[in-house]
Amino acid sequence: MQCSSDSARLFAALGSDVRLAIVCLLAPGERCVCEITPRFKLDTSVVSRHLTLLEQAGIIRSRRDGRRVFYRLASRGVIKMVAACCRVCGESETRPHRKSEGKK
Q1: Reading across the β-sheet that carries 68-73, which strands appear in turn?
Q2: 3-state secondary structure string across 67-79
Q3: 44 is in which domain, residue-wise?
Q4: What is the rounded distance in angstroms from the CA atom of residue 44 to the CA atom of residue 33?
Q5: Is 1 helix (H, G, I), strand (E, B) or coil?
Q6: Is residue 32 domain-resident?
Q7: CATH number at residue 63
Q8: Residue 50 forms part of a structural domain
Q9: For 76-100, how does the pLDDT look when each residue is reduced to its tens digit (9 = 90+)?
Q10: What is the pLDDT of residues 7-60, one digit of tens each?
């Protein structure tokens, strides 16, 4: 099996517990950034940076509707990959994610 730099970029983007939690939060469907940000004990600019990194890695997509920005997964394959990683690590992918700790 040969992995590309795109694969490495994908795994690097998912290497943050905050970004992984965002991906899981988007699993059911599209959400407004105004729904995502309050889920974390982080400054809005920090959550925005995590969203930008996920989008640059091709994991999520965004769309603007007036002043609101909505995010969704670019592919359902990402959730399958996260679920497989959880199984390998012995974690339950259905376990609710706790709020990530961080500074405000």
Answers
A1: 31-32, 68-73, 60-65
A2: CEEEEEECCCHHH
A3: 7-88
A4: 10
A5: coil
A6: yes
A7: 1.10.10.10
A8: yes
A9: 888 888 888 778 887 765 444 444 4
A10: 888 888 988 999 999 999 999 999 999 999 999 999 999 999 999 999 999 999
